Amino acid sequence: MGKINTLEKPTPEKTTRFIKNAIKKSKLLTIAGKCEVDYQGRADGYLPLGERITILKPDGTTLVHQKNNSDPINWQPPGSRPSVKTQNKKVELKSERTSPNETLTITIHETLHTTSYNLTDGAQLTLNKQESQMQKQITKNPEIIEEGLRIIEAERKTGYGRIDLFGRDSQGNNVIIELKRKRVGPKAVDQLQRYIDYYQEKGYKNIRGILVSPSITPNAQKRIEDQKLEHIKLEPPKTKPQRIKTLDQFKNQQ
Amino acid sequence: MGKINTLEKPTPEKTTRFIKNAIKKSKLLTIAGKCEVDYQGRADGYLPLGERITILKPDGTTLVHQKNNSDPINWQPPGSRPSVKTQNKKVELKSERTSPNETLTITIHETLHTTSYNLTDGAQLTLNKQESQMQKQITKNPEIIEEGLRIIEAERKTGYGRIDLFGRDSQGNNVIIELKRKRVGPKAVDQLQRYIDYYQEKGYKNIRGILVSPSITPNAQKRIEDQKLEHIKLEPPKTKPQRIKTLDQFKNQQ
DNA sequence: CGTGCCAGGTGCCAT
DNA sequence: ATGGCACTTGGCACG
């Protein structure tokens, strides 16, 4: 890991130089300071003066975090281009991108603390209990859903999106299956119905729609019944954690 | 602002003490270090060793950020309870919550840099181009949608969610309006249809459904026509930015 | 790039 | 707590 540099209560000029250098060297940067934030783009926003932590990542991601909440109060996504200058004794940190065109302007009135980091990390997250795992599980053991069911295709395309699983039951009916990893409401029913509509428009007959999820709200259950669809309760599976070594770790071992 | 404290390459014991103190004093904390992350809860996840920045907020929010991407690779939401201890010469930082029950465990093998902050910030973001602003705009000037339209109610309840705007046209038809701040696909059409279904189940006649958005995908347009609904193009309004002074700023002036 | 969907979505609000 | 939904959703996969 490269050296970590920190400035405490630097002047605006020093802050600007520090940020410029961090951007050039592709470092991850945190800036604690009193700032106001202006955003113009997909929406327009203004955040008055306050003390926050700004994070600038090497990929252009910019995050402004307040002392509470998971989500940043203002941000700019990866791919944004940062720039910084001193103006009226304030540090003006801009992060811009095109398509869509948007600009985040952080005006730092007072820098309290700023640090630049050089992080090495090639690891990837492995996750369980995902919808994709339900898909694999059912493809392998269709009898979980129903005896005699055959899965023909996963992710089958329609004009309105992809069907999670498409199959045929023991009676020869077409079966459209929509999977959800957690409790569902009416909009999951509509998603299923949309795929059925697509095939009915195409002239298909004998189509069954099955919504699969751990649970369902009462309103969604009513709508399932009204539209002659079916719901089956199923929890997402928990597979063994794969603690695969990543490229970075492999390199570290050389 | 309270004092900002920083430790560089502290021992596990020093790190643990530092974190404990920051939690007790309700400070915002950042920890740069080589760590692995385990998550058990709504899903199960494991992130192998790598260098990351962990942020611990006074409200219990915990964020693990890699050097790229907007989203944290692992996290815990506000309301989680953090705890920390030294074990096998490693720092084990846990963040737990109930309902749902979930635990995030960050095992720090090496602390590179850690800082605690005491931030003062009562400011709130004002945002333009929101759906709620389209709602107000149309309520005030219904002729934007159609001459002779009267808006009767906003957020009218149905069994399947709330209707953005409910009104009546010059012919006496009931009009259900669904607003979207950006380009819509088929699922917005279904959302509108769902509200119409609700009133049709109730026996209402003469119901029109109007989807209002800046633009629409071809598939959604087709579905609008198939279901005899209507689409009207409208951009979300940009109102004047309100740079209202917040309580914190008011206090600062005393 | 646009189209569509999953996500440990988060956050907000109403019952 | 549950329900339903907007969001600068972000992220991914595919045409």
From TrEMBL, chains A, B:
Subcellular location: Cytoplasm
Compositional bias per record (Basic and acidic residues), positions renumbered to this chain: 89-98, 228-238
EC number(s) per entry: 3.1.-.-
Superkingdom assignment: Archaea
Region annotation (Disordered) ranges: 67-98, 228-254
Domain Endonuclease NucS N-terminal PH-like as annotated: residue spans: 25-121
Primary location: cytoplasm
Domain annotation Endonuclease NucS C-terminal: ranges: 131-246
Keywords: Cytoplasm, DNA-binding, Endonuclease, Hydrolase, Nuclease
Role of this protein: Cleaves both 3' and 5' ssDNA extremities of branched DNA structures.
Database matches in NCBIfam families: PRK04247.1 (NF003270)
Name of the featured protein: Endonuclease NucS
Species for this entry: Methanonatronarchaeum thermophilum
Gene this chain is encoded by: nucS
